[in-house]
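ESCALATION

Customer reports they have been waiting on this structure for their group meeting. Please prioritize. Original submission:
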Amino acid sequence: MEATNTEIPLRHVEKDVLIPKMMREEAKERCAERVEAFNSCCKEAGFFMVFKCREENSALKECLTQHYQDPAFFEECKRLYIQEKLEFERTGIPAKNRTQKLPTSMAAPLVKAAEPQSPVSWMVCTGIVISPRG
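Update from on-call: job pushed to the front of the queue and completed.
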């Protein structure tokens, strides 16, 4: 079984764990309104949330299940996972650590210049301890 350019072989853990995890996260974002309604109901109801928030809970479950069972949604999340995997293989940087940093020439100027510090006060602020040699 050869992999074409569009089909990348996935390990068992990727198919059964990592992509479904991505699906859960994405489904929560797509059902954000129902998630928020359920969370606010739980906060208001307190201990009795099991009884008072049944309607919100069932609406949330229905929304999430609709996404979980959608084959097109699985393929979309699979495609996103493969993109992240290929980007990691190319750069070696995980997606959660991949942020674009501005060069120092483009950084915003400081509003107020910092007061110059003596070497001793700098060492105290950074936690450097100098022990006398005896």
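Sent to customer with the following note: The radius of gyration is 25 Å.
Escalation resolved.
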